[in-house]
Design goal:
The complex is a heterodimer of chains A (about 325) and B (about 290). By secondary structure, chain A is of the alpha/beta class. In chain A, strands 1, 2, 3, 4, 5, 6, 7 and 8 form an 8-stranded mixed sheet that branches. Chain A is globular, with a radius of gyration of 22 Å. With about 290 residues, chain B is α/β, with parallel strands linked by helices. The termini of chain B are far apart. About 5% of the residues of chain B have low confidence. Classes of the chains: A alpha/beta (about 325), B alpha/beta (about 290). Chains A and B meet through helix 7, helix 8, helix 9, helix 10 and helix 11 of A and strand 4, helix 6, helix 7, helix 8 and strand 10 of B.
Chain lengths: ~325, ~290
């Protein structure tokens, strides 16, 4: 088991023992079939025990794992014929967001998402996946293009947060995010958004105003990073896990709050354990939801999206209003 | 020196000195947090709560804003009984909301309603920083959406005075979604041809700045207000550099093209009246249509 996370240590150890036994048996010509079968049983049980009840902390470790598939991995496996389109036509080409046209089955779609780097060099080029305003504006340009040519839009969300730096402020980070929220709500084509890893704050939502919002099984979605919340609430970033638990950021919690529409199951251990299978599951879910949305007219799609977000919130009245 | 004078008079008092110190500025006099000038409250109020020395704009609460803005200080309030719930069961949230209600007399961080400015009917939303740092939760989101819907239905202009520390973490994802909800409502309002004037006041940050506050057809700001997405401390940590003093001020934002005009508080009402007047269709002038 390569690249295991801290909580996966017991599994890795057991796997090591099984491998050793197989090797030893082969070397000494001893038949360990029964023992190996028993150990495999134990391995399965342990797997269920560990992955069946992942804590928030463990889910965060999974989504932050450098092996977790990114937007481009899904674009290249879920879709075919991807052509990347660049630039916001205003300032530059932000590589923290990628997008273009591709085919989902036979259907041409516009696809885009936040892009984290694979290694240090890639991360530097992509600013650790934290977009500047030009990234959000590129995304919006591609969405409006899709609207014009009546292509469905698929967005992948995977971002710690919009870049909190002076260059971003100077170029209007706030306005870029706000504009996306407004414009996405007016689109007249189907929009499906999928949180594939980290859904961090406004930078995530700026690609997230979909008719359908899905989350991968272990993905998280929150208004502020757990560290940020802890440093504001408790003046101690070290209490991030406590803040993460209070904020209810797992896909399961957020489905229960009615904010997302569906959860995409992950292979045992997470998407990175079987990226091919994950891509297939994801493609199936996208096609299923797209099929349902295809029945709606452009006006209905816009209305459906508006109603969806209009209804989110929790409030009460002190007295019954007249 | 002035302070010594007051304390001498109160030699007989048994009130702890800490309280005495606070009593003076709150009741009668006010100290400017920027230049330190001490001025009579009455004088300060006459100057729209702007420091007569350095021009610092004191933070206003919603009722002070209503008083200065609307004709006769009259607001016909919408949804005044709407209150927050505790949808996540977030530790300490309910207690904190109750404390805020008691402290401010407000129900949440925004007051909405209709009134007139210079005779022009308007729907206004006025945020107040003193309630939970003006954070954006479900109640603020819902009230702003309802105000935008009322403005659309009545064909009135919409004016929102923003001030906020950002999203309300205690409502987590529901708070985040209010950004999409308010922006979507403003999208509809805009498509219907409605006029939305956004007035940014000190401070307007995070989720509010990255949603309805920056979506005005016209965006005004009070002088010296801090307006931005991320907070100064976070940015300084990110870029590992000290930021210049004027970073994220109204003037900085004007320079970078993020807003239309910086308006001194005393000129705010006249400016709004002019704008409202110019957006009122006058039959005579409209031969072309």
């Amino acid at each position: 088991m390569a690249g295991e996370l801290p909580f996966e240590q017991p599994l890795a150890e057991l796997r090591g023992k099984i491998d050793e036994l197989i090797r030893f048996g082969a070397e000494k010509q001893i038949d360990f079939t029964d023992e190996i079968a028993r150990l495999e049983e134990r391995y399965k049980a342990l797997q269920e025990e560990i992955y069946g009840s992942l804590s928030v902390r463990q889910k965060i470790q999974i989504v932050k794992s450098p092996q977790r598939p990114t937007t481009l991995d899904y674009i290249n496996t879920v879709f075919t014929d991807f052509i990347e389109l660049h630039g916001d036509r205003l300032f530059g080409d932000d590589q923290a967001i990628v997008g273009g046209i591709a085919k989902l089955g036979d259907v041409p779609v516009t696809v885009m998402g936040h892009q984290k780097g694979r290694d240090t060099k890639d991360n530097l080029a992509r600013n650790f996946g934290m977009p500047h305003p030009e990234g959000f504006r590129k995304a919006l340009r591609l969405m409006k293009q899709a609207d014009k040519f009546r292509r469905p839009i698929i967005t992948f969300i995977d971002v710690t947060g919009a870049y909190p730096g002076s260059s971003a402020e100077e170029r209007g980070q706030s306005e870029a995010i706000a504009r996306n929220l407004l414009e996405m709500s007016l689109l007249r084509v189907p929009v499906i958004s999928v949180v594939i890893g980290e859904g961090g704050s406004g930078g995530a939502l700026a690609l997230g105003v979909g008719n359908r919002v899905l989350m991968l099984e272990h993905a998280i979605y929150s208004v502020i990073s757990p560290e940020g919340a802890a440093s504001i609430l408790y003046k101690d970033a070290g209490r991030a896990m406590e803040a993460a638990e209070s904020m209810k950021i797992t896909a399961q919690d957020i489905l229960a709050l009615g904010v997302i529409d569906d959860i995409v199951p992950e292979p045992t251990g997470g998407a990175h354990r079987d990226p091919k299978k994950q891509a297939e599951t994801l493609r199936g879910k996208l096609q299923e939801h797209l099929q349902e949305l295809a029945a709606m007219s452009p006006d209905e799609l816009k209305e459906d999206r508006f109603r969806k977000f209009r209804s989110i919130g929790s409030y009460a009245f002190l007295q019954t209003p007249d | 020196m002035l302070k010594d004078l007051f304390q001498k008079k109160r030699k007989y008092a048994t009130i702890p000195s800490e309280k005495t110190k606070r009593e003076i500025p709150e009741g009668l006099m006010n100290k400017c947090p920027k230049c330190g000038a001490i001025q009579f409250n009455m004088e300060l109020m006459k100057n729209f709560k702007v420091c007569t020395g350095c021009g610092y704009h004191f933070i206003l609460n919603a009722s002070e804003r209503v008083e200065m803005l609307l004709d006769g200080g009259r607001l016909f309030e919408y949804d005044e009984d709407m209150v927050s719930e505790d949808p996540l069961g977030f530790p300490g949230y309910r207690v904190k909301t109750e404390q805020m209600i008691e402290k401010t007399g407000m129900r949440d961080a925004v007051v909405t309603g209709e009134g007139t400015i210079g005779g022009f009917p308007v729907v206004v939303c006025i945020m107040s920083f003193e309630f939970f740092s003006g954070t954006l939760g479900s109640v603020v989101g819902e009230k702003i959406v309802r105000a935008a819907e009322a403005a659309m239905q009545k064909n009135y202009p919409l004016i929102i005075f923003s001030t906020s520390g950002g999203a309300r973490m205690q409502e987590s994802i529901l708070s985040l979604m209010q950004m999409a909800k308010t922006s979507a409502a403003l999208g509809r309002f805009s498509e219907s041809g409605g006029l939305y004037i956004s007035v940014l006041t000190d401070p307007t940050l995070g989720g509010v700045s990255a949603s309805f506050a920056t979506l005005g057809d016209i965006i005004l700001a009070e002088p010296g207000a801090v307006i931005g997405f991320a907070g100064r401390r976070v940015i300084e940590q990110t870029i590992r550099q000290k930021l210049p003093d004027n970073f994220q001020t109204s003037e900085f934002n004007l320079q970078h093209g993020h807003l239309d005009k910086v308006v001194h508080r005393k000129d705010l009402r006249p400016t709004l009246i002019k704008l409202l007047d110019m957006h009122t269709v006058k039959e005579v002038a409209f031969h072309g249509r």
